[in-house]
Amino acid sequence: MKTLNTSNNNATIFRADQVGSLLRSDAIKKARLQNTNGEISLEQLRKIEDKEIARIVQKQKEVGLQAITDGEFRRAWWHFDFLEKLVGVNGFWEGNGIQFHQKQTKSRAIKVTSKLDFENHPMLEDYKYLHQAAGDHTAKFTIPSPSMLHFRGEIDKSIYPDEEEFFDDLAKTYKKGLQAFYDAGCRYLQLDDTSWAYLCSKEQKEQLRAKGLNPDYLIKMYLDTLNKAVADRPDDLKITMHICRGNFRSTWISSGGYEPVAEQLFGHLNIDGFFLEYDNDRSGGFEPLRFVNKSDLNIVLGLITSKFGELESKDTIIKRIEEASQFVDLNQLCLSPQCGFASTEEGNLLTEEQQWSKLQHVVDISKEVWK
């Protein structure tokens, strides 16, 4: 196993962790539809959401997780709901949705229509409820990475004729947002990002070039923006990033190992940890982890799939953790599902019972590996 010269000084390590989203309950689905149809008010919807979130918070505690999420129960999408509530961003129904292998999402798009800022974001109240419900456990909140506004959004060129000014304002907006979540009590924030997985994929990079985008430029600008956003954050605010290859109704978008971006991400992004998808052959090998050069950087191995209900072999998972430890010290590794169970409100193709079994599997294996 690879051993680094300096000790791991990250005070909070969750050996068994989760990406965040959980299958929406029938009560949530029904209430959201009733609200859309004008049958119940937003206040009534929120009371139902509160009750269901309290239930799944308790269930997470029973499973043995220490970092607790709200399952993203108040959202339709993992990213659009947050991004369109930033000052200067509007969401609208347009286009053909996002194309996955064999499936396509419903229509949704976002556009930057004025200068960016972070003010009175409604998810601050969402976090405060989770914080209260989590009690003596850690309340973990998930938001899209700043890269996603550029990657998935349209930018009005009359507002930002200079793209560097856009990225500078984006970093300032997120920096302000991170402080706002901290002031609300948050000490564990996860940035979700699909752009880096695209930048690992030869096929997706060709498609980006066809749209007039330069992958090398995106790597530089996204990395610089992220580092500006997280700079000078409070010492006790833990920030991680989940790099996702797509997760909609158990399908995916991109393939490819982390080698094309590993040196930039693992060596130069100033955060506390990465959630990496390693649940199938599309994910590549563990060799890119050789670029991890900080002893306080945690690597959360997503070896348990959230796309299907069958449980993986415990022995196989333990063996794969041992393989990863040839490149990163075992004390820096953790275990989780490869993604959330419902990146959109539709959810993946497994049952809620199978979901909890998967998370229990993560907890049980982690206890055996990190005794």
TrEMBL record:
GO terms for biological process: methionine biosynthetic process; methylation. GO terms for molecular function: 5-methyltetrahydropteroyltriglutamate-homocysteine S-methyltransferase activity; zinc ion binding. It comes from Niallia nealsonii. Coiled coil: none annotated. Its EC number is 2.1.1.14. NCBIfam families: PRK06520.1. Residues 18-346 form the Cobalamin-independent methionine synthase MetE C-terminal/archaeal domain. It comes from the Bacteria. PANTHER family: METHIONINE SYNTHASE. This is 5-methyltetrahydropteroyltriglutamate--homocysteine methyltransferase. Keywords: Methyltransferase, Transferase.
